[in-house]
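quick one before i forget lol
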Amino acid sequence: MPKTDYQYKFAFLFDQLTPLYELVRVLGIRNRLQQRLWPQVTIKPGSRVLDVGCGTGDDLVYLATHFDRLNLTGVDGDPKVLAIAKNKSKKRGLAVKFRASLAEALPFTSNSFDVAWSSLMVHHLPTKYKLLALQEMRRVLKPGGQLYLVEFGQISRWLRWLYWWQIRLEPVGDHFTGKLPGYIRQAGFKQLIETGLLFHVFLFQARK
């Protein structure tokens, strides 16, 4: 596990619960979210795509099987979910590369990817590291490269009390108050488009 200056949040919040992540994902709302997400996504054949915080690799599997000739790489700081992702990819015979890495220190040269993808990872990070992660995604993108960020977005004040448990468990409060678009622009991205997907989850699209 890479060392951090903050409390690392695992895919299912706690390391001991990682084996249950896949079960909860299947039984939860993830599938409905994906059904609304993918029609919004356009990626050119042959693009080099980086999934930051790839988790157990579901998005990479979909990208590999539904888009043409993508060069796919996934990074995550949790070796347990990376092992699940690698096994999932191997079983399907997919040519996906994986690296252990934190989002705020990506081990790639600048201007090397066409697409930076990240789904429900950034909200795990403290504010300072959210900005660093977004800056890193922009750094590794080629000029004009595309950001696809699936994340929690703004909700009305009277609804926030319903999510008090989530705010206590992870640093997501600034998402609920609508600060994420500002972070994306502060990182240097342009042409930001925000699309509601399901409940308080949004797709943020922008370009370098």
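fyi Strands lie at 48-52, 71-76, 96-100, 113-119, 141-152, 190-198, 201-207.
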